[in-house]
Design goal:
This protein is of the alpha+beta class. It contains 6 helices and 12 strands. Helix content is 27%, strand content 33%. Helix 2 crosses helix 3.
Length: 239
């Protein structure tokens, strides 16, 4: 498997026995005919990619990589920056796909009542914003699922997000999950407030130890999916 060019002019080649078995590109400037053409039905059936050959059955890790690459190639068509791979988001996505396969359900909310935000937090990702996409294909998840998402208005919107900047993909047999995220970064919090990205009302929670002599609130904050702001305390002094 090889990936060439930028995401604006992207080419993926899947090799079998050192021979190209499948080619996929979003650069249609020299395309004439043949193969399969992919269209965006949410944008007047605009052609966004083409492929030649048949994609062989892939293991889960390869499918994850192809879905990640094809997602960024689609973003490249619209001039958007690529999403960065994040291992914690991928761990949350993979865990959810495995859970759906094991317990035989298909939902963003698992049987324990946990939401995407819960699971992403459990994976150790401190997020400012997040989103999730899931899919189930009886023949097994492969990169074709990207075209299905593109032609679903809600899923397409998530793929073209300008709020999130990281992505993790998790595949388990017939189930696939994408977790999008934007991590909390202190340098951007005040700007986010000024841009009114946050909801107009939020709860400030403080610890009783806030008034304890020798302690003061520091500048680190954690924002959870309920839009609570929790002040972490740091001891007064030189830090």
């Amino acid at each position: 498997m090889g990936f060439y060019g930028s995401y604006e002019k992207f080419l993926a080649v899947y090799y079998t026995d050192n021979k190209a078995a499948f080619l996929y590109t979003n650069d249609l400037s020299a395309y004439k005919d043949g193969g399969k053409v992919y269209t965006d039905t949410n944008n007047d059936n605009m052609r966004y990619a083409a492929s030649i050959g048949r994609l062989p059955a892939c293991d889960d890790a390869t499918a994850e990589r192809l879905i990640f690459e094809f997602t960024n190639a689609f973003r490249g068509v619209y001039g958007l920056p690529p999403l960065k791979w994040n291992d914690k988001l991928a761990a949350a996505a993979r865990s959810h796909s495995e859970d759906m396969a094991k317990r035989e359900f298909f939902s963003h909310i698992n049987p324990d009542g946990k939401s995407p935000g819960d699971r992403i937090t459990d994976a150790g990702y401190e997020w400012y914003s997040c989103a999730e996409k899931i899919a189930m294909m009886s023949s097994g998840i492969d990169a074709v699922v990207v075209d299905l998402w593109i032609n679903s208005p809600g899923h397409r919107k998530a793929m073209l997000t300008e709020t999130c900047d990281e992505l993790g993909v998790g595949v388990s047999g017939a189930y696939g999950t994408q977790n999008y995220g934007k991590a909390i970064k202190m340098s951007g919090l005040l700007q986010n407030i000024n841009d009114k990205i946050w909801p107009p009302e939020f709860i400030i929670q403080s610890s009783p130890s806030l008034k304890h002599e020798g302690w003061k609130p520091m500048f680190t904050m954690r924002i959870d999916y309920k839009t609570n702001i929790r002040l972490h305390l740091g001891k007064r002094g030189n830090h």
